[in-house]
Write a structure and sequence with these properties.
Blueprint: H1 2-10, H2 14-53, H3 56-61, H4 69-87, H5 94-103, H6 108-116, H7 122-161, H8 184-205
Helix pairs in contact: 2-7, 2-8, 4-6, 4-7, 5-6, 6-7
């Protein structure tokens, strides 16, 4: 009986194990947000101000739209990631803004390098410096930048050789005609919000627990 009692005490129920796992997930969720929320919030505020206050013609003025094709390709690919850095385009917002740039005459290689540059936006560079120090963050940013520029040039050349780059008049950007609608993504947002609220509930229900507490 004693041995059986010890076994029963040392072996938590399956439900308890599952609850402990989700509680650890909740703690990790809150910890990640507590480390990064300032950079993320600042980045979105920056993006909002730049998108609203900076005229689109100013962005277009940074890209060559005339001259030798090779020079234009290289310049557009070099400037694309810089625009992404200062406008804080994340992996969600870069495509609409890229379509805006494309509709106003930006080269295809510049659009591609711009899309790839969501890993070197200013808030993320700040995060790199926070966790890897300034020197490592500079190396990471430089390597990413060169990779994005080369990728934009290479993709442009391949698509041009295959005749895949659209010619003639360009369609208007979806971002200029966008409006709020209720569709499947709205439902996914609602589900994500409910799930995040549940994780917050689990976290604050047991705020003193550590990640490894269930092992003791």
């Amino acid at each position: 009986m004693a041995g059986g009692h010890e076994l029963a005490t040392a072996s938590p129920s399956v439900g308890g194990q599952e609850d402990g796992k989700w509680t650890r997930v909740a703690h990790a969720f809150v910890t990640d947000w507590s480390m990064l929320w300032k950079e993320i919030l600042g980045g979105f505020l920056m993006a909002g101000f730049l998108t609203t206050l900076v005229p689109h013609d100013w962005w277009e003025g940074l890209f060559l739209q005339t001259g030798p094709p090779v020079v234009r390709l290289i310049e557009n690919a070099l400037v694309g990631p810089i625009i992404a850095m200062i406008s804080f385009v994340c992996s969600v917002g870069n495509i609409p803004l890229a379509s805006l740039l494309w509709s106003h005459g930006i080269g295809f290689g510049g659009v591609i390098s711009f899309i790839y540059a969501d890993l070197i936006v200013i808030p993320i560079i700040i995060i790199y410096a926070k966790y890897y120090r300034a020197r490592a963050a500079a190396w990471i940013t430089g390597i990413f930048y060169v990779s994005m520029v080369l990728a934009g040039i290479i993709v442009d050349l391949i698509f041009r050789a295959c005749g895949l780059i659209p010619q003639g008049s360009r369609p208007p950007s979806a971002i200029e005609h966008a409006h709020i609608i209720w569709n499947y993504t709205s439902w996914l947002d609602v589900l994500a919000g409910i799930f995040a609220a549940w994780l917050l509930f689990l976290h604050f229900r047991s705020p003193g627990k550590e990640i490894g507490h269930a092992c003791h």
